Give the backbone structure.
Amino acid sequence: MPVAPTRSPLPGSRRLASLATGCALLAAALTGATVPAGAATAARTTIAAAAPQSDPVTAAQALAAPGVPGANNWSCKPSPAHPRPMVLVHGTFANGSVNWDTVAPALAADGTCVFVLTYGAVPNVPLLRAIAPVADSAQQLSVFVDGVLAATGAGQVDIVGHSQGGMMPRYYLKFDGGAAKVHTLVGLAPSNHGTTLDGLATLAKSFPGALDLVGSVCPACTDQVTGSDLLNRLNAGGDTVPGVTYWVIATGYDEVVTPYLSQFLSGPDVHNVLVQDLCPTNIPDHVLMAVDLVVLHEVRHALDPAQVATANCWANLTG
């Protein structure tokens, strides 16, 4: 009898990061917090420090996440089987080093040139990343993609992003000239239309100071609340831009980006996938989407549908 796939256990530090993400976004939603001008200016100062330099590869390397297995080999050249380099974009409060230690080595083993950045720092806030304004983080992604293209000689990249990392690249595509440089965007539990964070109020109380902290140091959190100015601008006139293929992979058990249907996109060249439609017994939550093997197989399918079949409970999920 076929056996449903097991999921890799999540290190405690990453699970805490997921909870912090949920609490942070919830805090913004509950307080209606706005970001003081000083905090936003400080965030933009950090972004400016990573502005494009005369050498795009050097500028991109300054943003590269350290210690990611299989990633950020700047001498990697795409093969005919995998002609586009892959850029992996992490979620709120995380960083590239912890978000992609499952996906990056798996895609690299397939023969893909994989690149991972860490973005969105705010001055005087240690460790936490992807908290700067989404528009500023999109500029950092632009710098990184330009460097990847320069290093590899490729004409386009593919992007896989988790949570904010699945939504923020859409800003880059729409407003920062990214559409011509990106072939496929795959979002894992992306905050495409914001979140209500239904049911996390009690959880937020477990993190002393969370409600007070977020409004002053996490512009990205308020950007991701349903109905924010950022999301209204991003989604005005349609969810997509011409020439890019979009995949959204969501789970019905998401506790952070809620309701989960808000993650889905509308428009041409859009593929919305629910994990439980692929495998009803597979129930990853928001954070586990970055390490789940069914999701990983579906990412491979999204990137190369002609060669990789749609995921199911019994597919060779590691091959």
User: Anything to note?
Assistant: The chain has a mean pLDDT of 82.
